[in-house]
Amino acid sequence: MSTTELHVHNPVEDLLRQDRVPTIWCPGCGIGTTVNSFAHALLGQQINLQKTAIVSGIGCSGRVSGYMNLDSFHTTHGRAIPFATGLKLANPELTVIVYSGDGDLTSIGGNHLIHAARRNMDIMVVCVNNMIYAMTGGQAAATTPGASNSTTTPYGAFEPELNMAQLVDAAGACFVARWTAFHVMQLERTMAKALKKKGFRFIEILSPCPTYYQRKNNMGDALAAMVDYKKRSKIKNGCPTWETALEPGGEIVVGEFVDREREDYLTRMRRQLGSHYSEFPPQPEEQESEGCEKEC
Amino acid sequence: MPKGSVAITTERCKGCGFCVEFCPTHVLELSNAFNAKGYHPPHMLNAEKCSGCNLCGMYCPDFAIFGYKYPDQKAQKGEQGQ
User: Fold this and answer.
1) Exposure check for chain A: N or C terminus, fewer CB within 10 A?
2) Which positions in chain A touch B16 (Cβ < 8 Å)?
3) What ipTM score was computed for the predicted complex, to two decimals?
């Protein structure tokens, strides 16, 4: 209503597929908030959106690729990173972003995450951590904190949770950060920084899940979770990742933990192949078109 | 004179209340009215306090609200005078 009267335009809407919104996310789900930060980061950095691709797996956060007006792929469960790896290797010019959830990236696709970080594949991974498999029905994931209830752990999970930041740091990621859905401005700055960086970049975002995680654990609604993040989070940039474990009810350590330079997979491959690498034309399509012009 | 304002697309709103809670100048309030899906969208309670910072827009998970600044009238007057 007022949008048309005042002739103002939300810049984020340029990056959304207008025929797809409103989203299917539950009221208060933090994924939309992270998409706002991501869209602002993309717009602020003036990245060539024609050369940007977003890949998602299955899950609530996997819907992001469908809502963003970029080249996007919605892959099978847990296989977002292998797909993104192939995309990057086939077309190294692309900026490839994996936007998925904790169940998809660390539980089902856990091995892919480790090995993409080990290879230092030049992709940016945004992991929205809502502590549970939300879309598939609220099952316990690897990131579900110990003693939390879920549909598969009605007496509380008997397993401790995984610290993703520590995992990818140990595997060799270039950039590791964690924020919550509450830290929108910091998240935007971190995403903008990560978009410009080369190598494996990992950003974990804690997000409320009012429908499954919070309802099963009597933690109130989404707003209660956001206020809780505000109270419990503590910014520690450069903190060693082994000190960043998420304990139920404890401090949430957020910030940019790791920022280091390391040779990425493609650079390493080119260096090791040396002169052999030039045998493969970097842009075969352009050369073909030149040949056609000559013949004509 | 408010520095800015917010534009609300009420039909997209899901009434989560993030914008109301985290508005730095407490401009917004959830209204009693319903949208087509039965949620209570926000409305401006203290419109004169709005600074147009767009923090509500950053928090909104449904892209239903965003803040914008009015053109700086003092600066415009100054330019005209020069």
Assistant:
1) C
2) 27-28, 221-223
3) 0.89
